[in-house]
Design goal:
The complex is a heterodimer of chains A (250) and B (421).
Chain A lengths: L1 E10 L2 E11 L4 E5 L6 H9 L4 E10 L2 E2 L5 H7 L1 E4 L6 E5 H15 L7 H15 L9 E2 L5 H15 L3 E5 L7 H14 L5 E6 L12 E6 L2 E6 L1 H10 L1 H9 L1
Parallel strand pairs in A: 3-10, 3-11, 6-9, 9-10
Antiparallel strand pairs in A: 1-2, 1-4, 4-5, 7-8, 11-12
Chain B lengths: L6 H9 L7 H14 L15 H12 L9 H9 L4 E6 L2 E2 L12 E3 L12 H9 L4 E5 L7 E8 L5 E11 L4 E11 L4 E11 L4 E9 L5 E10 L4 E8 L4 E10 L5 E10 L4 E10 L4 E11 L4 E10 L6 E11 L5 E10 L4 E10 L3 H8 L5 H17 L5 H22 L2
Parallel strand pairs in B: 1-5, 4-6, 5-7, 6-8, 7-9, 8-10, 9-11, 10-12, 11-13, 12-14, 13-15, 14-16, 15-17, 16-18, 17-19
Antiparallel strand pairs in B: 1-2, 3-4
Chain lengths: 250, 421
């Protein structure tokens, strides 16, 4: 589904990704781990299409097409979802409006009619209930005054409504208490299916207790230095990132 | 040079106006105008807003024998269809009785005696007094079934014109009223209007006031709203300036009693060639009392906005709580804003805060919306509308929020089409 080859990316002239390769197949859950500054968030942003990052070499293919040619909105309509590490507050735009606009943008792209207002509300309420979110959040400004946990749940709500083919979740677990972490993990697990792929970008192993990855990759200095199964995450937790750095340099 | 308005011409036009009992008042207007002279940009309060074109239009109009265009009935009916209220309609300075059902309410009528009006204090007040045709008074003693709507609907379809509008509102102790002031105009000729509304709020009375200015492109207006709040009176204001080539609004709040509170919010939208100026002045003469203000502006193309918020806390007005904010969103680089809060504090125990910002759309928010499948242009529109919505949603008369929201949106659509964004 997602095929990244020898990806180099810079921001403001600094090279962050330095030859990263990664293949994610349908139905798979990948965890990307690594210390701060290793390029985890850059990878997530380059997949989503952030224009501040410049791809200087390499390729990213999504379902056999060149992803890098597409604007962020086109990538989203093709089925890519980025869960933000720091979801943006947008006062004056209510959550329901954003959700509906996002769902309809995708439906329009797929040649479908706009979602029926009643059906939309029913669906949104269902998904919110599953995430333990108060339906009142629908009428609040997007992320406006939300706590850290509420913001992350809101990201998962958007993901649940959009049903992406590929979800990239950037540090969705950071700053969450255990209840929020479980709710977020349940939201992610509910999305797991043979025709979807999920990439979890995370600093800690904690989320992986609840969402079991098929593959774990360790990122260091802009490259994947080790890949393995879920046991790699545990090993990493035990030995720390220094161990990976040493292994990579050896 | 500021064109002069000849006194003999003003007198000749005044002599032909109805309500002869106001002759002395109109003469006092001519005297005040001659004494003060229309403000030039050398006057601090008018530094950025040049009335020379409006004065020239007035001079030429007087010289042409002060022609009065027929009312634009279609525009009036359209406005009346949008909101359920008791209406007072004034077109080119004349009260239209056929459209003004509010005249049947007790306490509503045309002023017949000069002593019911306050004497002109400055040049624009003088101009207003000199040429006002049908000054209106409203005295609210008990609750009205519906809001009171004042529609100023000017037209300049066959000739250029000017209009003076004068309204004196008084709300008795313990009573309250909702007021909607709407200003529209139509026609391809030039037009200048000068509106003066005075509102007196007695002890423990209240007023929700929404003002919507949608004048035609090319038309100009100066308008003033003076509000006096007695003890425990409440004033909740929202103003929207969307139209006109030149628009100046002066809002003066006089806190004349303890426990009074005033909320003064507004929005302005200006596109290429538009100049919009909002001056507010709050005099805190008694405390404790509070005033809260937030104006938001959206500008595109060669637009110019002025916001000047002055708060004066007089000696002895302890316990004053005053807050002022002005935020501006520039959609293009050519737009210009002059935003200036002014605080003068002569009391000890006060809480005052102010802040102004001028900025562009939040790139992070734009990107966030785009990652949700929303195209760049649409995302820009959503964020622009949201910037205004946060303050439009504070408008006091709930039924008008949609009216204002739609008007703001329509104006933004026109402007973005004009600048090709």
């Amino acid at each position: 589904m997602l095929d990244i080859k020898d990806l180099h990316a810079t921001i403001g002239g600094n090279e962050i990704l330095r030859g990263l390769s990664l293949a994610v197949g349908a139905g798979e859950v990948h965890a990307i781990m690594g210390p701060n500054g290793s390029g985890k968030s850059t990878l997530a942003q380059v997949i989503a299409g952030h224009e501040d990052y410049e791809v200087t070499a390499g390729s990213v293919q999504f379902e056999g097409h060149d992803l890098l040619e597409l604007a962020p909105e086109e990538r989203a309509r093709e089925g890519i979802f980025l869960g933000f590490q720091y979801p943006v507050e947008i006062p004056g735009v209510n959550n329901a409006y954003l959700l509906k606009a996002a769902v309809n943008a995708k439906r329009q792209h797929e040649g479908k009619d706009e979602i029926d207002a009643f059906e939309f509300l029913k669906l949104a309420r269902e998904k919110m209930a599953a995430l333990g979110m108060d339906p009142k959040f629908l009428n609040r400004g997007v992320n406006e005054g939300f706590s850290g946990g509420e913001k992350k749940r809101n990201e998962i709500l958007q993901m649940a409504m959009l049903e992406p083919k590929l979800a990239v979740l950037d540090e969705t677990d950071s700053g969450l208490d255990i209840d929020a972490l479980k709710a977020v993990a349940e939201g992610v697990n509910a999305l797991r299916s043979p025709d979807r792929a999920i990439v979890l970008v995370t600093h800690y192993q904690r989320l992986l207790d609840y969402v079991e990855p098929d593959h774990v990759h360790v990122l260091s200095e802009g490259r994947i230095v080790r890949s393995g199964d879920k046991s790699l995450a545990l090993e990493l937790e035990e030995k720390g990132y220094e161990w990976v750095r040493e292994a990579a340099n050896a | 040079m500021m064109p002069e308005l000849p006194v003999d011409r003003l007198a000749a036009v005044a002599a032909a106006l109805p309500h002869e009992s106001l002759a002395g008042f109109r003469e006092a207007g001519r005297t005040a105008l001659a004494r003060h002279g229309l403000p030039t940009t050398r006057v601090e309060d008018w530094k950025y807003t040049d009335l020379a074109d409006a004065a020239e239009l007035s001079r030429a109009w007087l010289a042409a024998g002060a022609p009065v265009d027929a009312p634009d009935a279609e525009r009036i009916r359209e406005a009346q269809g949008r909101f359920d209220a008791h209406w007072l309609v004034i077109a080119n300075g004349a009260l239209l009785e056929d459209y003004s059902d509010a005249l049947s309410l007790p306490g509503v009528g045309v002023v017949a005696a000069a002593d019911e009006l306050s004497a002109p204090r400055d040049a624009l007040g003088g101009l207003n007094a000199a040429l006002v045709r049908d000054p209106i008074r409203v005295r609210v003693t008990e609750p009205l079934a519906k809001p009171l709507a004042l529609l100023v609907a000017d037209s300049a379809a066959t000739s250029a014109g000017t209009a003076q509008v004068r309204v004196a509102l008084a709300v008795d102790s313990g009573a309250s009223v909702q007021v909607f002031e709407q200003q529209v105009s139509s026609g391809d000729h030039g037009h200048y209007s000068n509106v003066l509304v005075e509102l007196d709020l007695a002890a423990n009375s209240g007023c929700d006031y929404v003002r919507l200015q949608q004048r035609a492109t090319g038309h100009s207006q100066t308008a003033r709203l003076n509000v006096r709040l007695d003890r425990d009176a409440r004033f909740h204001y929202f103003g929207a300036d969307l139209g006109g080539q030149l628009s100046r609004h002066d809002l003066a709040i006089n806190i004349a009693g303890r426990g009074a509170s005033a909320t003064l919010n507004g929005v302005y939208v200006a596109g290429p060639g538009q100049h919009v100026d909002n001056h507010t002045r709050t005099d805190h003469r008694f405390g404790p009392a509070s005033s809260r203000q937030e104006y938001r502006g959206i500008l595109a193309g060669r637009a110019r906005a002025v916001w000047n918020g002055k708060a004066i806390v007089h000696a002895g007005a302890d316990g004053t709580d005053a807050e002022q904010a002005n935020h501006n969103l520039l959609l293009t680089e050519q737009a210009e804003v002059d935003a200036k809060p002014e605080l003068e504090i002569y009391a000890d125990d006060v809480k005052c805060a102010h802040g102004t910002t001028v900025g562009h759309l939040d790139e992070r928010a734009l990107y966030y919306l785009r990652t949700r499948g929303i195209g760049r242009q649409r995302a820009r529109r959503i964020l622009t509308r949201a910037f205004a919505a946060t303050v439009v949603d504070t408008a006091p008369i709930e039924a008008l929020r949609e009216v204002i929201g739609e008007a703001v949106e329509a104006r933004l659509r026109d402007i973005t089409a004009e600048i090709g964004a």
